[in-house]
Amino acid sequence: MAGAELSAATTTDEAKIAGKGSAIDRLFAGGRVLCDGAMGTMLYARGIFINRCYDELNLSQSEVVAGVHTEYLQAGAEIIETNTFGANAFRLERYGLSDKVREINRAGVRIARQCVAQIAEKQSSEAFVAGAVGPLGVKLQPVGEVSLEQAQAAFAEQIAALAEGGPGVGVDLLILETMTSLAEAGAAIRAAREVAPGLRLVAMMTVDEGGNCLDGATPEIAAERLTKWGADAVGCNCSEGPATVLDVIGRMRLATKLPLAAMPNAGMPRSVDGRNIYMASPEYMASFARKFIKAGASLIGGCCGTTPNHTRAMRSALRAVEAQAGATQAEVVGTNHQPKKILSEVEPAPLAERSRVGAMIAGGQFCTMVEIVPPKGIDCSKEIEGARLLYKMGVDTINVPDSPRASARMNAQSLCIQIQQQVGIETVLHYTCRDRNLLAIQSDLIGAASIGLKNILCLTGDPPKMGNYPDATAVFDVDAIGLTKIARNLNYGLDLGSNPIGASTGFTLACAANPGVADIDNEVRRFAAKVEAGAEYGITQPVFDLRLLEEFLRKIEEFRIPMIAGIWPLVSLRNAEFLKNDLHISMPDEILARMTAAETPEAARAEGILIAQEMLSKTRGMVQGCQVSAPFGKYSAAAQVLGLA
């Protein structure tokens, strides 16, 4: 492979000179790097009419171009592309500018370099400049009049200008984008290898709704040929939006081992008052950034319609993936599905010394928990009294969920603090990723530790669409696995960037498990990942089908940690049907029949408590504790289940 051979030939010293010790190195080593978005979209939004030559703005309105670059850099882009997409002789000729190819391209590089230097000085962050090279905008022979030799010469003229002066003066790499035919892409690659042989080169095709290049070539053929011709990375940009690009790079992966690039439009445009508007939200693009990574992409970015807001959301998504992958941990020893030691000067206290829950689990004692849901208002006196009642009866700890079903309630951390301070019983804080970015997660957890909260249940969280504010924005920078890793890092006195925070947070860490899901194998895989991330015990969803719990425990035997069984005293047939149909909790027909047979509300509640007591009795020898829910604030019912009332 010419591209691979060229990459291997680049010396370490040359790489350092070219500034490739960071983002560019990661990119061509298969790492994850974020590129910017749509220069044209942003220029149009600034009032530049579409009949203007956008590339010429490098000369006449450089401050406008610089403003766009700066916004993308501030949003987290690690690579920005020069405003030179159409700065070739054929396209510039339409505006009478064919004699200014070098001048326009050099100005584009200079503007981008100045922006990168300024952002590096202000934010102490490193970014790189890619030379943007688009298609020539003409038809090549045999369909058109332009020969491949003429096409190659035009590309060579532009690329030579972009690379002029060498690394640090010219561009750091080249991005050939929106190529509509393999013949034209081949001409561009040959030109680059002729006039700028030392530059890394990313070659991206654009495809139709069927996923094929506009000349009919399949993604597999495109990837194979681009690799053979000397590209250092291949991929797809523009096209029909993120879903199409995701499919294309998945197919390209089958034909090449080179790094992949995915830079789609922000969805399909819609005409609004005569203007094409790209409707894909930043959150939607961010969700596909994660999918691109899973599909093997290394360079992630956007094309038409992608704004700095999209880039910012994609930056958060990539950080989430890094957190999930444990990119900030220095792991040295361990076995599969078991936590590995983190290199740190701070060693957390043994589990038995961190909390009452930890002591009970470590000592083999059966731990009893009762869940108390925060109120919807500011008055939590009922919940405080409920906790006091349960504490006097002998319950070991109180679990406080975090806005369950995405409902707006009192902050769970606030209720935990008040219960501990006013009652004296230990609490388990349910903490979700739904509402917090990575900064807020770390701030919250450090703050929780500082005021004496000792137990954290790490959860992904119900999406806002389930709740009473379905249009609320979800964050989900990480899921429960990534959250567990962050919390475990804090236990070792390290923040997400492995910077010391001074002391261990000392949390006892729990994770959730659902033995009743349809895809049990996926649930087992995720549970194993949670254990490896640092979970020290697990809490299950409510158990009504003993067989499913037994099967789940059997499947996790290899990486078993202490388990707490969820127990839910039903209050009515309607309650049972809600759990089954809305929350997708496995509910055997036998349980439904028993609740149906209850002729009065009182009889239904009594039957529900009896069923819960039976589940507790049957699971007691299988698990290390139980978490009993108190539906509708019926704390006495929870106590009855535990045999305390």
Description of the structure:
The protein is elongated, with a radius of gyration of 29 Å. The strands form three sheets. Strands 1-10-7-6-5-4-3-2 form an eight-stranded parallel beta sheet. Strands 11-12-13-14-15-16-17-18 form an eight-stranded parallel barrel, surrounded by seven helices. Residues 1-21, 271-275 and 326-335 have low confidence and may be disordered. The protein is built from 26 helices and 18 strands. The longest helix is centred in the N-terminal third of the chain and has 23 residues, at 101-123. Helix 8 packs parallel to helix 9 (148-163), helix 19 (438-450) packs across helix 20 (480-491) and helix 25 packs across helix 26 (635-641). By secondary structure, the protein is of the alpha/beta class. It has two domains: 2-324, Homocysteine-binding-like domain (TIM Barrel, Alpha-Beta Barrel); 351-641, Alpha-Beta Barrel (TIM Barrel).
